[in-house]
Write a structure and sequence with these properties.
The chain is an all-alpha fold. It has one domain: Orthogonal Bundle (Ribonucleotide Reductase, subunit A). Helices cover 64% and strands 0% of the residues. The protein contains twelve helices and no strands. Helix 2 packs across helix 8, helix 5 packs across helix 7 and helix 7 crosses helix 12. The termini are far apart. The structure holds fe (ii) ion (2 copies). One fe (ii) ion binds next to helix 5. It comes from Streptomyces hundungensis.
Amino acid sequence: MSNTPQPAPVAEERIELKARNVSFAWENTPLHWIPGDPFAGHTINVLHLLLPAGERWFVHVYKQVLPLITDERLREDVIGFIGQEAMHSAAHDDVLPHLKKLGLDPTPYTAQVDWLFEKLLGDRTLPPGRARRWWLMERVATIAAIEHYTAFLGNWILNAEKLDRCGADPTMLDLLRWHGAEEVEHRSVAFELFTHLDGGYRRRVRTWATAFTALAFLWQRGTRFFMANDPTPTVGRASLAAFYRAGRAGMLPSTPAMLRAVPRYLSRDYHPSQEGSTAQALAYLASSPGAGGGR
Ligand SMILES: [Fe+2]
Ligand SMILES: [Fe+2]
């Protein structure tokens, strides 16, 4: 464990984390589910490419970590987190056949993402002992860094009113908001787990840098992949300028907001409970059609 002083979480009522059963009917969701803005839609669609393998990987790593947790409440949170992430992975996976039916086969890209998480970030054949523990802690810290961004994106999608105003597909919005709300709900778990097992500041910075670079690379590549393979000839091309414009228009997270999230994670006072609102997330989850809200 680290001797680095750790910030206290913002006081909030502790909630029991549990996976919610969801179901989404995709038949009426068009390929360009944000009307008039295929670029923004495809940028968000990259989630369906990365998350099935990425969140399966979270679950795989955390199952190895469970025996190391000595705090019973944290252990319960991690078990709830595992259940939620497994459900997220499956729900995003279910979108892929629909995209294929609409003429956009994601398989060439998802095959590469699967390789990344299963082989490059997999267990490796390390002997028991320091090397194996080091690699496990690197992955635990990496998940904490990624979860900073899933919470950021979750908070963004819950508040992205522009998508409602422009007539974005309600089923896709519900999938994203159900997922985003659970990301906000469990936003402290990965960081608290990292703090409990290691918490080293240099490791936090190093794994953040790797995660940020990898995510930026995979995301721009995924968006280019979708734009290049979209069967509609007029969609245009992916570019940084288009990303910046869509952020300014409220169709995507804004570039300044994303940049401001960097020093927050790297601050020694960081705790994820300082970001987003649990009350807002729970209110959405209580009304989400896909999660059975109002049923
Ligand atoms: Fe998730
Ligand atoms: Fe998460």
